Amino acid sequence: MFPPAFAKENILALTKPGDLICDPFSGRGTTLLEALLNDRKAIASDINPVAWCLSSAKAKPATFNDAERAIKQLQADYEVEDSAMLKREADALPEFFSYAFHRETLKQLLFLKRTLDLRQQVNRFIAGVLLGHLHGEVNRSDYYLSNQMPHTISTKPAYSVRYWKCHGLFPPERDVFSVLLNRAEFRLSDDIPSRRGTAARCDVRATHRVFRAYIRSVDAIITSPPYLNVTRFEEDQWLRLWFLGGPANPTYGEVSRDDRHSSGHQYWDFLAEAWRSLALLLKPKGHLVCRIGTVKEDPEELAENLIESVKDAWPNANLARHPVMTETQKRQTTVLNPGSIGCRYEIDFTFVCPL
Question: Does pTM top 0.85 for this prediction?
Answer without folding.
Answer: yes
